[in-house]
Amino acid sequence: MSAGKRPVVSIVTSTYNRADTIRRAIESVRAQDFTDWEMNIVGDCTPDDTEGTVRSYGDPRLRFHNLPEKSPPGSHGAIAKNHALFEMSRGEYIAYLDDDDIYRPNYLSTMIGFMREHPGTVFAYCRCLYRDKKSGRRIWGNPFQRWMHGYSREKLRRYNFIDTDCVVHTRALLDDVGGWDPRYYYDDYELWLRISEKHELRYLNRVLVEKFVEEPPFLIRAISKGWRILRHGRHTPVR
To answer: What residues contact 80, with CB distance under 8 A and at least 6 apart?
Structure first.
């Protein structure tokens, strides 16, 4: 991307005190086979040298800003994301990446291609693979996630099965529905619900993202979480 040229997609990353960890996320973006992007990284008044980490790549597509004040507890990076969205992002499309996760090399090309192949699509999401944060080994996520994943508005009202890292939407969508609301603990879920009230969400059944998490063993989740969700959904209070 030449200087001054608007990128096709703006990637939004909020971060706090993860100057070393964020390298994994940055390097997965730089490894994309789709190169017309910018990555807007906003520190939530982070005290470490994340700015130095970002600048060490010497890549003008990587842009950093550190908020002067820490966000209120429970806002979960919503204020930092909004700064990246409304003050920094120039792309036609918006993608998100947590500071400790990675895109597979074809994430952007596949997601942007999917949206362009389906005219009128303003929001699309894919699947992710889970890895243990300490060992890097693959682990099973929610045992019923695959069953829940295919989109319907009714299912989304019961359970948030859309991971932020897996989402690409148009920049214009934000002008219609607004940005992230820091008043909600489940700010991603609140935003997806708000979008679903006005627009159709489209699902691409491919694993294009890898998430690093801390999870208990599969059988424990299957009994304590998965069965409960399968029977009742997860009625997450957001309003």
So the answer is: 14, 15, 42, 43, 44, 67, 71
Q: What is the pTM of this model?
A: 0.88
In angstroms, rounded to a whole number, what is the distance separating the alpha carbons of residues 124 and 199?
Answer: 11
Count Cα neighbours of 113 within 13 Å in the Cβ-side half-sphere: 7
**The pLDDT of residue 53:** 98
Distance, in Å, from the CA atom of 181 to the CA atom of 173, rounded to the nearest integer, reads 15
Q: Which domains does the chain have, with CATH numbers?
A: 9-232 (3.90.550.10)
Distance CA 201, CA 38 (A): 24
Pick from 169, 190, 204, 209: nearest CA to 12: 169
178-225: pLDDT as tens digits: 999 999 989 999 999 999 999 999 999 999 999 998 866 554 555 555
Residue 86 has pLDDT above 80, yes or no: yes
* 145 membership: H or E segment, kind and range: helix 145-149
**Token pair 């859309």: residue:** 162
Beta carbons of 185 and 74 less than 8 angstroms apart: yes
Dig out the tokens for 143 from the structure: 């045992």
What CA–CA distance (Å, rounded) separates 138 from 8?
32
Which pLDDT value is given to residue 76? 83
| Mean pLDDT calculated for residue range 140-168 | 77
pLDDT at res. 153: 87
